[in-house]
From TrEMBL:
A Pfam family it matches: Retrotran_gag_2
Name recorded for this polypeptide: SFRICE_041607
Gene Ontology terms for molecular function: nucleic acid binding; zinc ion binding
Lineage: Eukaryota, Metazoa, Ecdysozoa, Arthropoda, Hexapoda
Domain of life per record: Eukaryota
Keywords: Metal-binding, Zinc, Zinc-finger
Domain CCHC-type: 206-221
Amino acid sequence: MSPNNMFNLEKLIGRENFATWKFSVKTYLEHEDLWCCVEHPDDKPVDSSKDIKAKSKLILLLDPQNYVHVQECKTAKQVWENLQRAFDDNGLTRRVGLLKDLINTSLESSNSVEDYVSKIMNTAHKLRNIGFDVNDEWLGTLMLAGLPEEYKPMIMGLESSGVKISADSVKTKLIQEINTSKSSAFYTNSKKTGNNVHSVKPKGPRCYNCNKSGHFAKYCK
């Protein structure tokens, strides 16, 4: 990954994006062979040049308002630990808030099916990151519970199919439903357009003198 690509990563703003920031930055440091500077025993020496690079990259991926948390840090590990203490909120209040978000998410309150699925999966990921176990079958069932009444036939179809309910199976089914609906709508619109074209009544022969329809040239006045 080039240095320029580093700046395509999101910057750490606060608790609201710490979970996703932590995941992406850890992956980035692993790719750069620098994660060893963060995750190592205290009694094990770290290559100083690597540590400087890792520390610099971590700090450059912070929103400037968060520099205060790392200004006194000497190593990449200290930077990481300070940020975890500041933003990795895994307390009861955080869990309750995320659970409320998860339960109250519905398709009707989302911009699209994709947005709905993304909200649920992201919230579940945040809960798992703070040590709260989210059962996959429960998550899939919750995803179905947030659908409006018109999706009832789909839910009944899933039930009768015998497929094990999971977040992934429900997500796949929802996307299939959307694609099917789009295809049906396209076919219907195309058919209507075709019918409109063929239903236009002919205007009769075209006159080559005046270029109007309804009479022949020899009868043109």
